[in-house]
Amino acid sequence: MKTSLTLQMEETLYYHCREKGEIVVEEVTMPDDFGIVDTLSCRLDLQKQFIWNCYELKVSKADFHSQAKLSFIGHYNYFVLPEKLYLTVQNEIPKTIGVLVFHPYLTEEMEVPGFFTSEKKPQRQELQVNEAELLYRLLTAQAREVGKAKRTARGLRVFGTRQLYEELKKRQPDYDLFGGATNYYDRFIEESQVQAVEALKEELEATRHAYLSLEKRFLEEK
Fold it and tell me: Which has the higher per-residue pLDDT, 140 or 181?
C-alpha cells in the first residue's frame, strides 16, 4: 500500500510531466523482464522521434536500497526523492541518473501537493527495449487508468458486495478505536440504523393512514 508521501509525489510528478507536454502514466510493466517503472512519460521531439523518461519514486532509505528492479530503460531516467532522503543518498546515485527532489507545499489550497527542484540532470542513453513494445505497454497502462476512471464515474454500483467488504478490511488500520471524529465504520452503522428507523416510521404512518381510511369507510357504510 502506497504511503501518503508517495501519493503526493506521484500526483505532483503527473502534473509536472503534463506541464511539459508529455504523455504520462504510473506503474507501467516493462517488456523483456525489466520490471515495473513507477512513472513513464514520453513526448515527440522536433524530429518527431519519441523521447522516453522513466521515474523511480523512493521515500525512505530502506526503499532506496530495496532489491526491487530499477526500470531505468528510457532515454532519460530519474530518481524522485524527498529532500531529506536525497541528502542522505546523493553520493550513491549513478552519474547517468537524474534527480528530482520533492518539496511539499505548506498549505492544502494549492492545486498540487508540492513542487520539484532538479538537483541532478540525467545523461541520455539508448532505449533499452523495443520502442513499439514499450509504446504498447504505455497504451495498455493508459487503458487501465481509463477503465478505473469509468468505474469511478459510475460510482459504487459497479463493485460487488465482496469487493466493497475487502476494501473496508484494507482500511481497518485507519479505524480509530478511541472514537475520533472520522470513524466511518461507526458512522455507516449509525446512518444505516437511522435509515431503517425512518423507513419503519414511514411504513407505520402509511399503515395508520390505511387503517383510518378503512375505519372511516366502515363507519360511513353502517
Answer: 140
